[in-house]
Amino acid sequence: MRGKTNLIKIIKIPEIFDDCCLYFAQTKDHIPFSIKRVYYITKAVTKYPRGFHAHYKNRQVLFCIQGNLEMVLDNGKRKEKIILNKPNEGLLIDRLIWHEMHGFKKDTILLVLSSAVFDPKDYIRDYQKFLKIANGKKAS
Ligand code: T46
């Protein structure tokens, strides 16, 4: 794992070039959790950024496999940005990291590997509540 800072953690996965470009990621070797769910986002409405939430438990690795995306990560104390634009580079988003995705185009494809199955109760979508939880205060 290549870590520019504490917040931005980039995971490089193998790439194989012969008669195609092939990328693969597997639990333990590349992904630091058992993969329980895969989803991908494409054909997004381009004028709206996405995300704006954190997860209580779910951990994820995000790959922008086509196009590019600006990711904003926030741990409640500071924010950092990174452009995701390489299919062999995944961004690890840990628990309790507020994340925003900016700059979706119609043909952007974001592939996500998740440590948990979908659970709407795992989302924190209120930023003030997130700040309280991330900074160790009781959220109502
Ligand atoms: C995240 C970022 C990176 C499901 O029913 N099942 C699923 O597995 C997912 C991921 C979403 N949904 C539903 C929930 C909403 O009704 O799909 C709808 C759109 O989800 P949301 O508004 O959360 O989409 P994004 O792009 O803001 O966030 C997504 C993931 O939901 C989220 O966990 O971390 O991508």
Characteristic terms for this protein:
140 residues; mainly beta; six-stranded antiparallel sheet; 13 strands; binds dTDP-4-keto-6-deoxyglucose
Gyration radius over CA:
15 Å
**How many helices in DSSP terms?**
1
Order of helices and strands: EEEEEEEEEEEEEH
Largest sheet: 6 strands, antiparallel
| Helix share, percent | under 10%
Ligand list: dTDP-4-keto-6-deoxyglucose
Secondary structure category: mainly beta
Tell me the fraction of residues in β-strands, as a range. 35-45%
CATH class: Mainly Beta
Which word captures the global form? globular
CATH topology: Jelly Rolls
CATH homologous superfamily title:
Jelly Rolls
CATH architecture: Sandwich
Order of strands, main sheet, comes to 1-2-10-7-12-5
- The average pLDDT value, as a whole number, equals 94
Q: Tell me the domain tally.
A: 1
Characterise this structure.
The protein has one domain: Jelly Rolls, CATH 2.60.120. The protein contains one helix and 13 strands, in the order βββββββββββββα. It has one helix spanning 127-134; strands at 2-3, 9-12, 15-17, 21-23, 37-41, 50-55, 60-66, 69-74, 79-84, 89-93, 98-102, 109-114, 123-124. The model has no long low-confidence stretch (mean pLDDT 94). The protein binds dTDP-4-keto-6-deoxyglucose. The site of dTDP-4-keto-6-deoxyglucose has 9 residues, from strand 5, strand 6 and strand 7.
State the gist of this model.
This protein is mainly beta.
Task: Draw up the topology in text.
Layout: E1 2-3, E2 9-12, E3 15-17, E4 21-23, E5 37-41, E6 50-55, E7 60-66, E8 69-74, E9 79-84, E10 89-93, E11 98-102, E12 109-114, E13 123-124, H1 127-134
Antiparallel strand pairs: 1-2, 2-10, 3-4, 5-12, 6-11, 6-13, 7-10, 7-12, 8-9, 8-11
The chain binds dTDP-4-keto-6-deoxyglucose (T46).
